[in-house]
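User: Predict structure, ligand manganese (II) ion.
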Amino acid sequence: MDELRDSLFFAPKNGYDRIGTDERLAIEDYSRDYMDFLNNARMEREAVKYAIGMAIEHGFVEYVPGMELKPGTKVYKNNRGKSLMLAVIGKKSLGEGAVIAGAHVDSPRLDLKQMPLYESDEMAFLKTHYYGGIKKYQWVTIPLELHGVVALKSGEVVDVVLGRESGEPKFVITDLLPHLAQDQMKKTMPEVFPGESLNILIGSTPYADEGKDRVKLAILSLLNDSYGITEEDFLSAELAAVPAFDVTEIGLDRSFIGGYGQDDRVCAFAELRALFDLDVPERTAVCLLADKEEIGSEGVSGMQSECFDTFMADLCESEGVALRRCFEKSFCISADVCNAYDPLYPEVSEKMNAARANYGVGICKFTGSRGKSGTSDASAELVAYCRKLFSEGNVIWQMAELGKVDQGGGGTIAKFMAKRNIDTIDAGTPVLSMHAPFEVTAKLDCYMTYKAVKVAYEAK
Ligand code: MN
Ligand code: MN
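Assistant: Predicted complex:
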């Protein structure tokens, strides 16, 4: 009976029971580099910049239309500093399709409004409009730092990073003390923190003179000293407050990584590392780092933008291949995180189908809910292809479902890739506390995400 059970049942195993010492060491090495990336890439622009730096070190050059491309050529295309496409040209024609891995490098955060700065009762604040899906209560009483750019009328673009370096001041949104919160605590969560209440404390020293708005004036003169900007320049700025926590190992056994923005930079980093490992792949390998996924993949830097089609059409034209021929033969891993089963909140997941920490990269056949609405739903054949690929490449992986049938659901770039007639499947790292200011992943799963993309790129 035991024999029969072993041959017929499918029983997933903890990843740590399936790897040896070599792989344990590889996981640690990989995690160190990933944590460094995560500490330095806290906004999409910073992720793109960091990735270009890494790419140049690995022999990539900026794509110039009309340039000669041959097997092994490594190119990248920077889309307005906010999204990035990279490719390693393969031995086979693009008419036989490309292997694409697409992640996103934007994360939930608090964007500053275009007129953000105001003074109230001799304290200065910045107004925000949150970006992406957040639970607002998580974003108050935590240290925040400011990132982004201010584009001046002169055409100059000023980079802003404030609060990242040790010793630099940070910012915060305040909350009521419990002693005075009896009424507040009777409210429902959305009632407690309306969007308009997420205002960031930025200073309190009045300008040493008489008149009104002296604190606001003092703050503006500090900003003017550091960045040469005036209040009007906020109109053409993209500034955001993000959590100021450092990325760190979590647990006595250091098996987890805690930090901001792991959705989806954990997969972005996995793709980059996998791409940089390549010599000359069979099929052209493409890595996408998209922006705007958290708000529906909209905009010129999101995955619905034709910037991707333009880049791919350029590569195809150099071989005299029609883009649509390339797309219909291509394979895409939409590398985005899934939720890890959380024993503290078992009620929202269906345990048999939920992804678990340390069980490897999670494959989501579909990501929608309530009748699978809004999902790409990869075909059985495509899932079978991944099973074969991952088992041959010793990738530890698991099936994942984003919450119970009537609970969850979530969007990724998968449906926008599938719309282009590209066979697409969602695969990514399971995350605890997804979209929180401090998200948690298991090191083993981060590493297995990299390995999954790598074997896909290397497939014959
Ligand atoms: Mn995501
Ligand atoms: Mn997300």
